[in-house]
Design goal:
This protein is mostly helical and about 150 residues long. The protein contains six helices and two strands; from the N terminus they run ααααββαα. Strand 1 and strand 2 form a beta hairpin. Helix 2 packs across helix 4 and helix 3 crosses helix 4.
Length: about 150
C-alpha cells in the first residue's frame, strides 16, 4: 500500500515526466511541420486556430489569452488579414467593435495544417509495436480525462 508521502512523490514525478514528454512531442511536431506551414509563423498558425475556436473574438481578447501586448497582437492579426486568412466583421451588440473570423482561405489553411500534423503523428505511431499502440490508446484515454477534469 502506498503512503501519502509516496503517492505525492509519485504524482510529482509523473507530472514532471508527462510535462517533459508532451513538450518534446509538441516541439518535435512543430519543428518538423514548421517548414510546411504555408508561410505562417508558429504564432500565426496558433492564432488562426484560436480564431476558429472563438469566432468573433477581438484583438484585445486574443492578446489577453496569449499574454502579449495589444500592439503585438494587432500586427499578427494584420498579417493574417493581409494573407486573406481572417476577416473582421462588426459585432452585433456593438457596431463600433469588430470580431475576427476565419475566411474560406483560412479554413483551407487550417485543414492543411491539421492534415500535416496528423500525417506526422500517424507516421510515428505506425512505427510502434502492437503492445506500444495498445499502451498509447490507454494513455490517450487518461490524457483526455486529465484534459476534461474541472478543478
Amino acid at each position: 500500500m502506498m503512503t501519502n508521502t509516496h503517492r505525492h512523490e509519485r504524482v510529482e514525478r509523473l507530472s514532471e515526466d508527462l510535462r517533459t514528454a508532451l513538450k518534446g512531442i509538441v516541439r518535435r511536431m512543430r519543428r518538423d511541420t514548421e517548414r510546411q506551414e504555408q508561410g505562417l509563423s508558429l504564432m500565426q498558425a496558433m492564432l488562426l486556430h484560436l480564431i476558429h475556436e472563438h469566432p468573433g473574438i477581438g484583438v484585445a481578447e486574443l492578446a489577453r489569452m496569449q499574454q502579449v501586448r495589444s500592439p503585438t497582437m494587432s500586427g499578427q492579426v494584420k498579417a493574417l488579414e493581409t494573407a486573406g486568412l481572417v476577416t473582421r466583421a462588426p459585432l452585433a451588440d456593438d457596431r463600433r467593435r469588430s470580431g475576427l473570423h476565419v475566411s474560406q482561405v483560412g479554413h483551407a489553411a487550417l485543414r492543411h495544417l491539421r492534415d500535416q500534423r496528423h500525417d506526422w503523428l500517424s507516421q510515428r505511431i505506425a512505427r510502434l509495436s502492437p503492445d506500444q499502440m495498445e499502451a498509447l490508446a490507454g494513455a490517450v484515454d487518461i490524457l483526455n480525462i486529465l484534459a476534461d477534469h474541472e478543478d
